[in-house]
């Protein structure tokens, strides 16, 4: 069980479907095994899907700054295929870091998560959890940023 310290944080993700597009009929989430948005909305997060070489290792990344999450998804998906999730994150006791540690696979001993703070190469705040049970999607935001 994690100490409370519950946060609302943004997570940018890609989608392959038209769920949420104007003019489409809401029939539920798609069944594609590679549509990140629908997978998260149906089954929640999986830290094993994190990008290799991520700044704070293999975890689920969120930010209190929506433009940070948008900036990430902008790098990996065309504008039509972007989505943002507002998530409930149980941070527990967060270890503050300003320098990268690409080898993390769990929060440091005595901590429940990592909080990347601006400085030392990080421009925006980040909160990384390493247990899939620490994060749940609350709201889905689909937008066109063109």
From TrEMBL:
<feature type="domain" description="PARP catalytic">
    <location>
        <begin position="1"/>
        <end position="146"/>
    </location>
</feature>
<keyword id="KW-0520">NAD</keyword>
<dbReference type="GO" id="GO:0003950">
    <property type="term" value="F:NAD+ poly-ADP-ribosyltransferase activity"/>
</dbReference>
<keyword id="KW-0808">Transferase</keyword>
<dbReference type="InterPro" id="IPR012317">
    <property type="entry name" value="Poly(ADP-ribose)pol_cat_dom"/>
</dbReference>
<dbReference type="Pfam" id="PF00644">
    <property type="entry name" value="PARP"/>
</dbReference>
<protein>
    <recommendedName>
        <fullName>Poly [ADP-ribose] polymerase</fullName>
        <ecNumber>2.4.2.-</ecNumber>
    </recommendedName>
</protein>
<keyword id="KW-0328">Glycosyltransferase</keyword>
């Amino acid at each position: 069980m994690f100490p409370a310290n519950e946060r609302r944080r943004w997570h940018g993700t890609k989608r392959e479907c038209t769920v949420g597009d104007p003019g489409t009929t809401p029939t539920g989430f798609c069944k594609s095994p590679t549509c990140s948005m629908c997978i998260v909305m149906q089954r929640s997060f999986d830290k094993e899907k994190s990008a290799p070489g991520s700044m704070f290792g293999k975890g689920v990344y969120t930010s209190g700054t929506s433009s940070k999450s948008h900036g990430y998804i902008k790098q990996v998906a065309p504008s039509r295929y972007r989505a943002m999730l507002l998530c409930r994150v149980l941070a527990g006791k967060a270890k503050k870091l300003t320098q990268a540690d690409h080898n993390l696979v769990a929060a440091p001993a005595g901590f429940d998560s990592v909080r990347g703070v601006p400085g030392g190469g990080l421009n925006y705040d980040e909160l990384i959890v390493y247990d899939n049970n620490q994060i749940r999607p609350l709201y889905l935001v689909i937008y066109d940023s063109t």
